[in-house]
Amino acid sequence: xxxxxxxxxxxxxxxxxxxxxxxxxxxxxxxxxxxxxxxxxxxxxxxxxxxxxxxxxxxxxxxxxxxxxxxxxxxxxxxxxxxxxxxxxxxxxxxxxxxxxxxxxxxxxxxxxxxxxxxxxxxxxxxxxxxxxxxxxxxxxxxxxxxxxxxxxxxxxxxxxxxxxxxxxxxxxxxxxxxxxxxxxxxxxxxxxxxxxxxxxxxxxxxxxxxxxxxxxxxxxxxxxxxxxxxxxxxxxxxxxxxxxxxxxxxxxxxxxxxxxxxxxxxxxxxxxxxxxxxxxxxxxxxxxxx
Length: 291
Fold this sequence. Notes:
By secondary structure, this protein is mainly alpha-helical. It has 2 domains: 10-141, no CATH class; 145-285. The protein has 12 helices and 2 strands. The protein has helices at residues 10-14, 25-43, 51-61, 73-82, 85-104, 112-126, 145-157, 164-175, 184-202, 211-225, 232-250, 267-285, and strands spanning 131-133, 139-141. The chain has a two-stranded antiparallel sheet with strand order 1-2. Strand 1 and strand 2 form a beta hairpin. The longest helix has 20 residues, at 85-104. It is elongated, with a radius of gyration of 24 Å.
């Protein structure tokens, strides 16, 4: 029997969640406690007065927070639990900015900003919510590490000037899953257009990317590349068939605004289509500029 990661909490090893959460009470409680602890520890004050932070939050977010007990940890836990989700995520950026100001003016020890961001990232990861925080304190939607790795790998494979237009649509497909509200149809359209542009680079006579074009243009060169190689040829031909199915599915969402009334794609379908579409770009690129 293979032992799970040593020294890791039971729930992290054995309790799996199929989808990341949009919100979590535990996340909120931990964020509230984390905000207080960062200021208390890095300012070296056991009962730190955070009324100035409360005032900054009210000013920048246009919300009202109680004036009492802002120097107590329980106050921040309670207030974060009461805020709307969007305000909770905005709060992270505002707190980060205040820490930056205090670091620059020696009101708090250097290192507080990094500790704050590391703590927020850990909370997001451990509570399995669908957000990530960037190095400047901005919060973004996140799917998972594997999803991000596929994007990075595709970008590396398409890093020359020839593929600028392909990369533009690839990046747009991911951006469509990092906005409010999510543009799931747009994400599928963009990843399809990225594939279509690359396909037409490889096959200049093709006027579109469709299943018949894949069969006519792509299958012969795949067969040529792997001819006489078993089982490689069989596997490669199966990949062509899978790509045809991917293309056919994407056509359900590819019409421009005003040309149809397709409903928004479910998030899980959009995520799968963008991730698989990025992987198909890497696969397709190997056939570019090949005689």
